[in-house]
Design brief:
CATH class of one domain: Alpha Beta
Shape: globular
Helix content: 25-40%
Structural class: alpha/beta
Length: 284
């Protein structure tokens, strides 16, 4: 129960105290790591390094080299575990669909873990300083927009768990991005949007049996989006728990007594729903 309590506390964290508004000093620098880019079929993957406010961030870029024209870009924001193989896999899957995808680093230096205590520390370091988190997201956004394979006018972001909270926050504060997709993300709000202030289209996939994001959180999110007159959709999967897209969820659930679980149908259905959503927003 120790890690369950820790996880609940982290995901239900209250909105941090307001901070003095000051422009985020963001420096973007793209570097290909010493290891050469690898090609798998027609997919190129690259380790990339960029920075925000002096913090080195390590991302993972994937795109189809056989596509000649510029294509939409998609950011992938990781779970509370950090920038790991799972977020990289999703970037590769997006590249297979014809997008340029960047698995971002929200913790700095590519940090990741498989232990809840470390994951909680990493996640809370962002939630407690969201201006820094915004700068890191925007640095990744600048990078993908500037990549030669990307159409900078067509960019979206997806996020899992912690990453879902991040992409929804960026939509709430008016980030210039076409759409965001949250997969079993935290729905708590750190910013109350004014009516008409959200230009980003929003899609949320949620498990009805998510023990970390209970029904009242979902209803509060819907009420907030309605009041903001946002263009949003929520898809709820009956009988499905938190972390339903990650095949490793069952392992973490057993090892740390966390209310997580993989659901193949919800995983595949939500991925197809994301594809349909992207076709719609990028055609407009």
């Amino acid at each position: 129960m120790k890690y369950l309590s820790l996880f609940l506390l982290a995901l239900l964290v209250a909105c941090p105290a307001s901070q003095e508004e000051k422009p985020a000093e963001t420096q973007v620098k793209e570097e290909v790591a010493e290891a050469p880019a690898t090609q798998q079929k027609n997919i190129i993957t690259e380790e990339v390094t960029y920075s925000a406010n002096g913090v080195e961030l390590k991302g993972y870029l994937a795109y189809d080299a056989n596509i000649n024209e510029a294509r939409p870009g998609v950011l992938v924001v990781h779970e509370w575990w950090g920038h790991n193989d799972y977020s990289r896999k999703r970037a590769e899957m997006l590249a297979q669909l014809g997008y340029t995808a960047l698995a971002v680093d929200m913790y700095g230096e590519g940090k990741n873990t498989e232990h809840p205590e470390d994951a909680n520390k990493f996640m809370m370091s962002v939630f407690e300083n969201l201006k820094e988190g915004e700068a890191r997201f925007n640095a990744a956004l600048d990078m993908i927009k500037k990549h030669p394979t990307t159409d900078p006018e067509k960019v979206a972001a997806i996020g899992y768990c912690f990453g879902g909270a991040i992409v929804l926050h960026m939509a709430r504060i008016g980030t210039d991005i076409d759409g965001v997709v949250s997969f079993h993300g935290s729905l708590d709000s750190f910013h109350t949007p004014e009516p008409g202030s959200i230009d980003t289209q929003i899609l949320v996939f949620h498990g009805a049996e998510d023990g970390l994001v209970p029904p009242e959180k979902l209803e509060a999110f819907r009420a907030e989006m309605d009041k903001a007159d946002a263009d949003y959709e929520v898809v709820v999967f009956e009988g499905v728990p938190h972390s339903f897209t990650n095949p490793a969820a069952d392992k973490f659930a057993e090892e740390y007594d966390l209310p997580l679980g993989y659901d193949k149908n919800a995983d595949e259905t939500s991925w197809q729903g994301m594809q349909d959503f992207f076709k719609k927003i990028f055609a407009e």
